[in-house]
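Re: beginner question about structure tokens

> Can someone show what the tokenized structure looks like for a real chain? I only ever see the sequence side.

Sure, here's an example I had lying around. Input first:
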Amino acid sequence: MAVYKEEKTNTWKVYYRYTDWKGERKQTTKRGFATKREALAWEREQLNKTRADLDMTFASFVETYTADMKSRIKENTWHTKDHILRTKILPYFGKRKICEIKPKDIIAWQNEMLKGKDKTGKPYSPVYLKTLHNQLSAVFNHAVKYYGLHENPAAKVGNMGKARSREMLFWTQEEYQKFSDAIMDKPVSFYAFEMLYWCGIREGELLALTPADFNFDRKTVSITKSYQRIEGRDVITDPKTPKSIRDIVMPDFLVDEMKDYLKQLYGIGENDRIFEITKSYLHREMTRGADAAGIKRIRIHDLRHSHISLLIDMGYSAVAIADRVGHESINITYNYAHLFPSTQTEMANKLNDFRKVDL
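And the corresponding structure tokens:
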């Protein structure tokens, strides 16, 4: 590397030479430093990054972490991670050397986050606090696993907040029918909510559906992708998990409804989205329909809970339900254990019968 002054602009520049992962020699230039000291400081940071020297700042290591991880993570997931890093973590740790950040510094940061407020002025939720800590810990874990950091100070301190524990709400079939009748005046809303309730699909899976996903001869809809809106762009990603890729058999009435809906979409291509609406539109329609029907307002995702509770009430096993809704593990389905009918009385009666035979 070399540092030079540019007389015309009265600023400093750095020539930076390095060897890339292919073993090829590269050169880049960084201009516009107000002082030689700033130019030299930047030069030292680049040398530390090149050597993977943990004497670098936390901000510099985040650049390394980004280069390592961004292409391995779904775009929408990275978008969330990047926002947290930029707004909640880098302002506190960016200028600190990563090797000098201690557990006491993590505790001080946690205390600041515990005092934080969201856009509405409310304290951050326990779930959000846990997410913030997990993102910070992930950066340190990366440094420990791949770059020789001695320990993860965030892991040593332990988490703040708690895992998601929202009340699991759902509509009965009667409640959904009232809602469905209330939104029937808008066809796109009616058909979208029919798919959500009767198939138990996720919001992003619904918004990614195309005509090609339907096989009306087999009465199936194929779930192979998910829709996200990121920074003003429509982004189609893989579904949430590998198990989320599945074929769902639709009831006959839903097959007929979706046939009718697709006929209304004049000129639509086989791979065009059939629900050109936004998540915020669905949320507004959920509120409108619930208010008009005089029923409790639930989240869009609670329609998935409603579908699962309906299947449980119909007597289907956790294994069959997990396969239909695309749960990655049957343990997720067992989160609905309180909805499964109790068999304790039946068990006791059979034990009585067994005892009588034995006597």
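Each token stands for a local structural state, so reading them left to right follows the chain. The first helix runs from residue 36 to 50.
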